[in-house]
Amino acid sequence: MKIPTPHIGAKSVDEVAKTVLMPGDPLRAKYIAETYLTDVTCFNEVRGMLGYTGYYNGKRVSVMGSGMGIPSANIYYYELFSFYDVESIIRIGTAGGMQDYIGLRDVVIATAANTSSSIVKGKFEEINFAPTPDFGLLIKAVEIAKDMGVSYHVGTVLSGDEFYGELKKETRDKLIQYGTLAGEMESAGLYMTARRLNKKALALFTISDNADSAESSKDRETSYTQMMEIALKVATQEEK
User: Do the domain assignments include residue 7?
Assistant: First the structure.
């Protein structure tokens, strides 16, 4: 496929950095670019899925929205990896806490993504493939979070296909029993696509809701600075 692709308007691979931070919300991508990056250029506005490249602490990094759900996000993951020579994608999203010890705005670093999505299910016939991140990125994120004094948790997440789906209580209870930290909608697709293409991926989340409370869309867009800063610091360590 030639570039620009049907979904990304950048006319050259040079417009996109080797590491891309990807929130679901394009307005969060815009916020990160305007708040943290210098010498910013916009490389994508197709379908309103904003993408920017700039510099953080002297290192080049891009940030772009992915949309909601694995089918939408996988289009961008695949095109960035395959056609724009991106080496690493770090998902920076929101998630719902599933363990009672996880608080609002805590950071979750996903070691694997449980899912019933057809993107994963059935691809390997009788095998339940386990989508996992790049270990080097994972270790960097944990070390940075520890150095920052962030309240963070490391473990598995659930990538669901339906935001308003009805997970059976027995299934949810079993996931919690087996240590699943949070629920979200994209990271299984990211980890699968990265493994398929021999690229690097990591997913970080800020807990935006749990059984007792939730935050507003404006909070989700702008206030998750600790997660953003962890991802930016990981990205600058990746950039040569």
Answer: no
Residue 103 has a pLDDT of 92
Binding residue ranges for phosphate = 24, 28, 47, 91-94
Q: How many domains does the chain have?
A: 1
Query: Residue positions in the annotated binding site for a purine D-ribonucleoside?
Result: 7, 184-186, 208-209
CA distance 97 to 87: 30
Q: 78 and 193 in contact (C-beta within 8 Å)?
A: yes
Question: Stretch 218-232: mean pLDDT, rounded?
Answer: 76
| Residue 2: inside a domain | no
Helix then strand then coil, in percent of the chain rounded to 5, is 35, 25, 40
pLDDT tens digits for range 39-83: 999 999 999 999 999 999 999 999 999 999 999 999 999 999 999
pTM over 0.85: yes
Within-domain flag for 6? no
Q: What angle do CA 48, 198, 78 make, to 5 degrees?
A: 20
DSSP state of 89: E
Q: Is the model's pLDDT at 213 over the cut of 70?
A: no
> What is the domain extent for residue 68?
13-238
Binding annotation: 7, 24, 28, 47, 91-94, 184-186, 208-209
Structural domain includes residue 1: no
Which CATH number belongs to the domain containing residue 176 in this structure?
A: 3.40.50.1580
The confidence band for 221, taking pLDDT boundaries of 50, 70 and 90, is very low
Confidence of residue 222 (pLDDT cuts 50, 70, 90): very low
Catalytic center residues: 209
